[in-house]
Every structure is written in C-alpha cells, then in structure tokens.
C-alpha cells in the first residue's frame, strides 16, 4: 500500500470525491467519501476492499464502446466494457485484490414507454452482469431499473454504500 | 391557462433573458450589422469579452504563438460563432440553478440546456433542417420554465408533485395534476413575455409532447424533443423527475432514431459539452443531488 493516500479523481473537496458522468475515481484515503450524482440510465459501480482500504466508483453511460471507438479512447469511463476494467485495474494499483472486493451498482433506469427500441438502462444492466459473470465477480448489492434518478455514495470510513433518491436514503451495503 | 398566468404573476422576479443576447441576436440576424457595433456590445460585457478572446485564442480557432485582440477575435470567429459563444456563456448565468424544486445541483440545469442545444443541433444537421441555429436556441431555452417553477414553489415543489407521480405517468402530467400547469407551458409563456417569436415559444411548450398531427406538427419541435431525450440518456440535468418522460413514437419514426443512432448522438452530445466546459474556465460543476 502506498505510504500516503492516493486518489485518482478530478474533484475532491474536503474528502468528498465527486465523480461526474463518464468518469471514475479510486482512492485509499481513509476519510474520503466517493459520490456520483445524476444516475438515470447510467450505472454507478462501487468497489471496496476492506483489507487494503481501497475503494472506487465509476459512472458509465453506455454499455458498449464499439458505438464510438474514438470517444472510448478519450473517455474509457463512458462505457461499461472499457470503464469497468479501468476502474478495477486502478484499484489494483492501490493494493486492492479482486477476491476481496465488494461490488455494488445502482442506476440503469429507463425513460417511459421505451417499447424496447432503446432500453439504454436495461442494456447497461445486462452488460455489467455479463462482465462480472465472465470475470467471476459477484455483485454484493444493487438497486437498478425503474425511471427514477439515483445518487450513489461510498464511505471509506466503513465501506458502506448508500443510494439516495428524492432525498430518501437506503443503505445498499452492508445489507 | 389561468394556472400559467397565476404562477408567472406570483413570481416577484421572473428570469430575464440577458440583454447582451437580445442585442447580439438582433445584430447578427441583421445583414447590416457591422463588427464595430458587435465589438461595442461585447466590450460592455466583460465575461463575454473574455469568452470571445478565450475561444479565438484556443487551439480550436487560434494559431500557435499568435494572440488575437477583441476585434480580431470577432472577425476570426464570425457572426454565428459569436452568437453561439454569447448564448452558451450567458446561459450559464440564466440556468445557474433550478434550486430545490428539481433537486438539481448548481450548474446542472445549464449542462442540460447546453447538452439539449448540442443534441438538437446535431439532429438538425443530420435531417437537413433549414435553420440549425434555431434548433440550438430552442434546445437551449427549452427548460426555462423550470426556473419559474423553482422561483414559485422552491422546496414545496417535491412534496406537492409527489402524490401525482404514478407508474407510467410522465413528470409533466404530474406537474399539470399538481399545479394546473407544467414547466413547458410556463416556459413558453415566459418566452412570449421576453418577446421571442411564437415558434420558439411553441418549441419550448412542446418539448416533451410534440404534436404528431398537422397543422400543429413541426419538425423543429420533434428535433428539440429528441434532443431533450438524448440529454436524459447522457445523464444531463436529471433531477427529482428522473427519466419520467416519453420519446414520442412519431418522433422516433420520423427522425429514424434507432438504438445505434441514439447512442452515437449521446456520445457526441456529451463530448461537445465536455469540450465546451474545458474551454470555459468557470464552468459549473456537473451532476445533481437527490
């Protein structure tokens, strides 16, 4: 584990690491709180290694990077298939181990009456399950679907993961 | 439409369309306007001058090792780009916050507005719509009614609208049930009070429910509506209302919007917004609170 806390993130204010759309952050700062807002059809993925005290959060927008390879190159966190590997690898660099990681997810909502034409949220949900299944990663907890917006928090102090919608909070992990 | 008028009249200070935008719009749509006049307007708006200089001297427009002054920058950028910069920059003030009503973080409504403008513009180009800039402007202003709702209801908005939100019901239907009017109708009325053309007001009015049938159908409304949905998928300006909106079937069919096209548009819209944010030093923070 590095001698001093390291955070790969764009915005950190008073220990609160704010992760925007198509972005991710990992940290081993024991007092940090990771948060991502505006999860509609996008999905937020949190990872936490309680032994190494390393955590990360990803806010991806779309399932498959093949739709825009150039954007995937510039912003790998935009897509599930490029963002999730990037999130995990960055956490490993800070000492996290795959077998210890607690993985949670939230988001994947849909606009109303989609009629199966787009299903952006649903396709995002399917993609994370596919990626995790292929890589032998279990989803510890998730709250996905519907047509609501969600905010996702991870507190480094105890590894708890919280989902908030319209001011109401729910602890996703530990259950 | 008594509810619309009542809500507008009860707000002490209605949002104002920045005078710089009004003056520049008038000048740039007038073939007689000269660059000296435009420079004069820009000079009186320090933030706008700074934005013009920043754009003209950026890697996108400038040449390495050369600095352009305000007049040179105006010439270099050209009229349409000047109006665009003015709108984007001034919109950041107008849409700074929708406060508590929609649960949007500071700057989130601006991101949604500009994102919708970019999405509408892309769609307009793709469908050879004759006035791309009109689509941009309507996309930018479409949610202006949210400012009025926030000024009128503030923190009371959510507890008032919540009982009217039901599965399958859109957020605008919920607003009409709760308040007798929705933010799109109120935004349209505000646009008319700003003396904007009727067609722009109608684009705002119909941005969630564009008419499918003639004589009310207008491709402009379809484009602005589709841009709004692209914006939601891009995670921009999602508030308490979440994704409780519908893409009108006639718009999906008419614009030939399939999954692949929509996802590509999402990435392009998001990418353009990021470029703009990087260009604007003082870009608002992204996201929202729920």
Beta fraction of the residues of chain A? 35-45%
Spell the H/E element sequence of chain B: HHHHHHHHHHHHHHHH
CATH class of the domain at 2-14 and 96-279 in chain B: Mainly Alpha
Mean pLDDT of chain B: 86
CATH architecture of chain A: 2-Layer Sandwich
The description of the largest β-sheet of chain B is:
none
- Helical proportion of chain B? 55-70%
- Roughly how much helix do the residues of chain A carry, as a percent range? 10-25%
Q: The CATH topology of the domain at 2-14 and 96-279 in chain B is what?
A: Hypothetical protein af1432
Task: List the quaternary state of the chains.
Answer: heterodimer
The total number of structural domains of chain A is 1
| Tally of DSSP β-strands of chain A | 12
User: Shape of chain A from CA axes?
Assistant: globular
Query: Which spans of chain B of ≥5 residues are poorly predicted at pLDDT below 50?
Result: 282-290
Report Rg of chain A: 15 Å
CATH architectural arrangement of the domain at 2-14 and 96-279 in chain B: Orthogonal Bundle
The residue-averaged pLDDT of chain A reads 92
- Main pleated-sheet profile of chain A: 6 strands, mixed
